[in-house]
Amino acid sequence: MLRDVHPIERLRYVARSSGGDQRTLVRETATAISGLDLDPAGLVVACRRIVERHPTSGALWWLCSSLVTSPDACREAWGLADQIEEDPTADQIVDLLPDGATVCVVGWPDFAGEALIRRGDITSLVINSNGEGNSLVRRLQRADNDAEEIEAAGTAAAVIASDLVVVEALAAGPDGILCSLGSHAAAAVAYCSEIPVWFVVGRGRRLPEPMWKTLLQRLDDSADGWELEAERVPLAMATAVVGPDGLVDPTPSALAAECPMAHELLRTSAM
C-alpha cells in the first residue's frame, strides 16, 4: 500500500503500474479517487484513463463503471474496495477442491493460488505464464506443498496428468473469460480429454457485454495475436464456474454482469 502520498500521485501510480493483484489495484484506485474532490466530468476522465491503462482488469472496469454511475462516488469507492477485499472466492475453492487431487493451473492465479497454498494436500502442476509460474511454485514449496513448474511445451502432458484444470478470470463477459496466456490451450486439452475445467471468476470480474467487447477490442488493438498479454477462453470449455457464491453450472447467467453499464468508459480520453 502507498502511504502518505497525495491522491493525485496515488492515482498516477495506479495508472502507470502494470500487473499486480487486482484487489490491490482496486483498493489503491478507490483510495486515490476518494481523496480527490472531482466533479463528474473529472471523475469520468480519471476512470477512463485507469481502464485505458489496465484494459484487462475486470475489477477496475467494475470499480470505475460503478463510480461514474454513482451519486456519491467517494462513498461508493470505499464500499466497493471493502467488497472486493472480503471476496470469499478463495474460501470457496478451498472447500471445493477434491481431497488429494492433482490440479493444473496457469501462471499465478490470485484466488486459486491462495487456495492451493492453504489446502496443503493438493499436487499442483503450474504452467509457466509470463514468468509467474515459477514464483507460485516456490511459494507453494515453501508452504510444504507438492508443486511442479511446467513449461508451455508440457501443457498437454500436465493437463492429462491432472484431475482438474483451474483457469482464473482477469475479466469475464457473457460468453467467456479473459485469462493468463496458456489458459486456452490448457482448457482445450482438458475439454478434449474429458477432464473437469473450473472457471474461477472472483467478485468484480463480470462485465456488461458492451464493456466486455470494448475490453477485448482494446486488447486486440494493443498487439499482434501471439503477443497479447491475456487470452479469451470460451464458456463452452468450462464444466463449472466458481465464484463468491460457490460452484455453479457454466451457463451465461453464471457470468451475468455485476456492475452497471457506463457508456462513458467506452470512449477514450484526450491525453
Descriptive labels:
Rossmann fold; single chain; 11 helices; 10 strands; 44% helix; alpha/beta; Four Helix Bundle (Hemerythrin (Met), subunit A); seven-stranded mixed sheet; globular; three-stranded antiparallel sheet; 271 residues
Verbal overview:
This protein has helices spanning 7-16, 22-34, 40-53, 58-68, 73-85, 89-96, 110-119, 133-142, 155-160, 183-192, 209-222, and strands at residues 102-106, 123-127, 146-150, 164-168, 171-173, 176-180, 197-200, 230-234, 240-243, 246-248. With 271 residues, it is an alpha/beta fold. The chain has two domains: 7-86, Four Helix Bundle (Hemerythrin (Met), subunit A) (Up-down Bundle); 89-255, Translation initiation factor eif-2b, domain 2 (Rossmann fold). The protein has a seven-stranded mixed sheet with strand order 3-2-1-4-7-9-10, sandwiched between helices. Strand 2 (123-127), helix 8 (133-142) and strand 3 (146-150) form a beta-alpha-beta unit. Helix 1 (7-16) runs antiparallel to helix 2 (22-34), helix 1 packs parallel to helix 3 and helix 6 crosses helix 7 (110-119). The protein is globular and about 55 Å long. It starts with 6 loop residues before the first helix and ends in a 23-residue tail after the last strand. The mean pLDDT is 90.
The first-to-last residue Cα distance is 27 Å
Count of the domains: 2
What proportion strand? 15-25%
Number of strands: 10
Please state the CA-atom Rg, rounded to the nearest Å.
18 Å
